[in-house]
Specification:
Layout: H1 2-20, E1 37-40, E2 44-48, E3 51-53, E4 59-64, E5 69-78, E6 81-93, E7 96-105, E8 108-117, E9 120-129, E10 135-139, E11 146-151, H2 155-160, H3 164-175, E12 176-183, E13 190-195, E14 202-203, H4 205-210, E15 214-218, E16 221-227, H5 228-244, H6 249-253, E17 257-258, E18 262-272, E19 275-280, H7 282-299, H8 303-315, E20 321-329
Parallel strand pairs: 2-9
Antiparallel strand pairs: 1-4, 2-3, 4-5, 5-6, 6-7, 7-8, 8-9, 10-12, 10-20, 11-20, 12-13, 13-14, 15-16, 16-18, 17-18, 18-19, 19-20
Helix pairs in contact: 7-8
């Protein structure tokens, strides 16, 4: 069933991309001056590394200053910045113009290698993340897996907070023998885990690569960046199911940060050398808990557990400090 859903998602994503792409009827006289314009819709093709990227909502602006130099501006294409300008070298051969260049945006080096032919810009670009967050991170063993910093102001409850991290950590390690978050230089997010007793890992790498789910660091926040085209597609497909639980698409969108061509799911992080904690802060936890409440109320049948959950939902908004996440090491 999971593979069938994966294949269906792949077909849908491919349709989104090819619907946005196509031939352009415009033509140029063959002069370098004709390159200077905005390429969008049918007049642009985008590839990140080897992955085709939907072009809706994105554009490439080319400004040629000579037959050898050109400025290439990527709009809504790079998660770190809505607009990235790159100075590139320009060459021409048999009516095809080729441009190459790179620019640094925060902790990311963006490179472009593209062509313009018959009015269509084909842009291959890469992101090289240079942040210290790059690497393969493994979930801390035993009781150290869970990061919890909770202060409710209620003495009785705060006295029990100390058991939250080891208890939840124990529950995790009863299900898996390893959890890894891979943050490679190319910016594609991946996570894998090995169920207890299994000989191979499971993961979401196929989906994250196919849908170009990236990661970046913006204003000190770790962001999972998802292309707006895919977010719109998924929320449209799930709209009726969400409504059945009393959840609106607007409620979900409120959890995300607008990154131009992407929506970012923000997580706080606390890195110290080869150790890092990724965690949700109070605002995110309360928002997610509020959204999940209707689902939990229907899913939980045990009245004692339901009472505990309802009490927690009432206490969360009033907590003085509320941070919950996972601890990893390289």
């Amino acid at each position: 069933m999971k593979k069938s859903l994966l294949y269906l998602f792949a077909v849908i994503c491919t349709m989104v991309f090819f619907t946005a792409c196509g031939d352009d009827d415009s033509s140029s006289s063959g002069n370098w001056q004709d390159l200077s314009k905005t390429y969008e819709g049918k007049s642009v093709n985008l590839v990140m590394g080897e992955v085709a990227i939907p072009v809706d909502g994105k554009s490439v602006v080319i400004a040629a200053s000579s037959a050898e130099k050109v400025s290439v501006t990527l709009n809504n294409i790079i998660p770190e910045n809505k607009s990235v300008a790159i100075d590139a070298a320009l060459k021409e051969a048999d009516g095809t113009y080729t441009f190459t260049g790179e620019s640094t945006v925060g902790d990311c080096v963006v490179s472009v290698n593209g062509t313009v032919k018959e009015g269509v810009a084909s842009v291959v670009y890469t992101r090289k993340v240079t942040s210290s967050i790059v690497g393969n991170w493994s979930l801390k063993a035993d009781a150290g897996a869970v990061y919890a910093n909770i202060v409710t102001g209620n003495a009785q409850i705060d006295g029990m907070v100390g058991i939250v991290a080891p208890t939840v950590s124990g529950l995790i390690w009863k299900k898996v023998s390893a959890v890894n978050v891979n943050l490679p230089e190319d910016g594609i997010f991946d996570v894998s885990w090995r169920p207890i007793g299994a000989s191979e890992d499971k993961g979401i790498g196929e989906i994250t690569k196919m849908a170009s789910i990236q990661y970046c660091v913006v204003d000190g926040k770790f962001m999972l960046a998802i292309d707006k085209n895919y977010v719109t597609l998924v929320t449209t497909l799930l709209g009726d199911k969400l409504k059945a639980y009393g959840i609106s698409v607007e409620d979900i969108m409120a959890l995300l940060v607008d990154l131009g061509g992407y929506y970012g799911l923000p997580l706080s992080m606390n890195q110290n050398g080869n150790e890092v904690a990724f965690y949700a802060d109070k605002d995110l936890i309360v928002s997610v808990a509020t959204l999940a409440a209707p689902i939990l109320q229907q899913a939980i049948t045990d009245q004692d557990i339901k009472a505990i959950v309802e009490m927690a939902l009432q206490l969360l908004p009033n907590a003085k400090t509320l941070e919950l996440g996972l601890n990893f090491t390289k």
